[in-house]
Amino acid sequence: MLLAVIGVLSGAWLGADLLKGGAKRAARAATRPKPEPAVAGTKGGSLALPLAAAVPARKPRVASADTKPAEDKPVSAPGAQESHSDIRQVHGPFGYLMELGKRFGADLCPAWAASLSFFSILSIPPVLLCGLAVLGALIKPAEAEQQVQRVLANVLPGGGRAAERQAAQIMKQLNVEKSIETLHEQRGVAGVVGVVSLFWAAMQIFINATTPMNAAFRAKETRGWFKLRGYALFLLFVAGALFLLSLLPSAGASVIRRIPWFSNLPDPVPPIIAFLILLVGVAINATMFAVIYRYLPSPSAGIEWREAFFAGAIVAVLWEAAKIGFAFYLSRFGNYDKVYGSLGGAVALVFWIYYSSLILLLGAEIAKLYSDVREAKRNPAPA
């Protein structure tokens, strides 16, 4: 619902902006002086007024203090608009919501979310195989496949047998079993090169996400080629570990009872304990998003931990709500199997990744807006 409201507000703002631009162009065209026609002269046919004199001479352009070279301005992502209003003129919750919707639309977040979804789909097989490569070195390949399939079922919204069925379909379509055998058989240099290639492909999702992040934070990318990939590898391990931890509460009481400290957890779980388990999952997700907002954009964005955690907490709540809403939609209305057949699980996963990408970019806009509000309070406008 929040994303729908923001989308409507973004469309309204863009329409009003286009109307204002058209009115300004029409006013300039009406006030522009028209050139006088050339006047024919005497019988001899000579021109009394040369053509050059009929056209008004252009005034030389004078460089003003506001004119700056393009390289002096902060470079953002392609398509990003310099549309952020003066935050000092925004007041009240509705005003901040309007400003958030304006930025969300001006920075082309829906289009960037579609782009991120595409790269995320390409990164899913390497991510799964990276997990299998790590688990395969510790446990048997068959057990590693079961663990990865269980994790994938917990990622898919809705849970239960439907999610397990979709996870099994995805694992089968990706031919994961054959990949496990290949990773298990290859040893030595070939195996190391294969695992490194998998990690390289898996971290591309973070590398491709830097452009829309920098667009939201109005930041110029200052990291070099190697440094940017170092950040992506760091986020792959840290955010990935936090993501796996966040799946424990949603995995159910049977999985939590395997942890030594929670072996005596009653069955069924009391509602208060179930609520606390849910809060733990949300807190871990908030930390994961905060790490992403802190380290994924360029350092020139200047995002502090307070702003990153503020946006991360909101996005974690929205993500849990989106899980519940998307699961309800799939159970009541969205039966993709009837339309796409055996690809229904993969199509549902694509839609879920798109919604998650929208929420991720919305959090970036929230962090930037909160940063601007704090900056405006530290530096109030002169009287």
Automatic annotation (TrEMBL):
Signal peptide: none annotated. It is found in: Cell membrane. InterPro entries: Virul_fac_BrkB. Residues 60-84 are annotated as: Disordered. GO terms for cellular component: plasma membrane. NCBIfam families: yihY_not_rbn. This is YihY/virulence factor BrkB family protein.
